[in-house]
Amino acid sequence: MQTVVIGGGICGLAVAHRLARAGTPVTLLESTGQLGGLGTFFPWHDRWVERFYHCVMPSDDDLLALLEEVGLRDHVRWERTSMGMIVEGRHYPFNSALDLLKFTALGVVDRVRFGAVSLLLRRLGKGKDLDNLRTEDWLRGLYGDRVWRDLFGPLFGSKFGAAFGDVPALYLWQRLGRERNVAVRGYPHGGYKTIIDALRASIESHGGIVRTSAPVRVLRNGSVELDGETIEADRIVSTLPLPALRQVADAKLAPLLPQVNLRYQGVVNALFVLRQPLSGHYWAPVLRSGTEFDGVVEMSPLTGPVDGRHFAYVMRYTDRDSPLFQEDERTIAARWTEQLRSLHPGLDVEEVHVFRAPFVEPVYPVGYLAQRPAIEVTGTPLLLATTAHVYPSVTSWNSSVGLANRVSEIILRTAASMSPDGEPVP
Ligand SMILES: Cc1cc2nc3c(=O)[nH]c(=O)nc-3n(C[C@H](O)[C@H](O)[C@H](O)COP(=O)(O)OP(=O)(O)OC[C@H]3O[C@@H](n4cnc5c(N)ncnc54)[C@H](O)[C@@H]3O)c2cc1C
């Protein structure tokens, strides 16, 4: 039983790894020249650096189990990291009760309320139908109008745009379960490329085929068409975001695809190579400070300096049709350098690299659990493994691996009930 996997990001690689290890013939097709998807990297000095900031959390059980299988679990270096907050150009540490007391961006009463509610928030959400509750309604009710307007609105709006208030509270609740202000975070020794290389090696050593620069141009009900080549398949796994999938599906397959209409957020992110560290916090949201980016991720607290340099990413989640997303990289780099300098005067910038991705994750609507598309597309050999399927889990390598596990289990179960010539076993 031949399976074709479309997309060589972590999800596609994890599916192909599982199938190959189980002895099922699998071919993975990646359109670009590089495996890794949103976790890809570029050469810098004698090493590889991620285009987009990435870290592992200790609760990433599915990812850590996969790393164990390919002998990389012990390659993850763990560090205790902290969070800052930049509001109206002022820098605050944001990790302890004392930090909160000194957080003058909120009034005294709101600070106390913020602290008390935040401590209880996970518990307050338990047993509630948070999927059908707007985040804004939930948080405004608990924290009050000012905290929503001055802090949460802009903070979470930076991730989902103006629609954040409409995203189900369940998304936020799940996120709080994964992340804390002071958190142990992990980063693989040698970078994310080490994981990608190990997965490719595992797939190929078990007889699977991995092809890069192999864009799927047309997806049919039972075959994929590349440039000048058609591959027939008993099972096809697509890891493409739904809008990208619709673009390649042929006229017969398109009406069978999930009809759910989701808006996707993309991202513009710049990596600054600096000669000095910034603040020592891994992550700092930036609110009302005259910058277009709305967060800073500083890698040095996690990875240490690299060749005496410090890497800091700044990011803006935005629609792929927005003017910013369309703008040329040099203009963004020049403007964002000035904006970062306005927050950190005297900053010594050595290089700036701007990267963007059109599809990071969907803006999930309220009540999404009932609309979430099924993995198996009825009447076709197609299985879907996309960020539209990981909800309510947070979009991450961990949730992609978890989804890949579910998808490969379905395929292996079907394969087990087939005879070698593809007929169902009675
Ligand atoms: C700025 C940023 C920060 C992040 N931080 C973290 C983090 O700290 N920790 C974490 O765990 N996750 C993080 N993530 C999320 C994580 O990167 C994604 O959830 C994950 O990489 C998604 O993997 P995927 O395989 O589902 O999709 P993708 O990585 O998008 O892979 C899809 C692949 O399909 C290929 N493709 C597209 N069209 C075709 C075609 N027609 N034919 C063949 N191939 C095709 C693409 O080139 C791509 O390689 C971050 C993401 C971003 C953008």
Automatic annotation (TrEMBL):
Segments traversing the membrane: none
Matches recorded under Pfam families: Amino_oxidase
Superkingdom, taxonomy of origin: Bacteria
Domain Amine oxidase: 10-348
Protein name: Protoporphyrinogen oxidase
Originating species: Lentzea atacamensis
Lineage: Bacteria, Bacillati, Actinomycetota, Actinomycetes, Pseudonocardiales
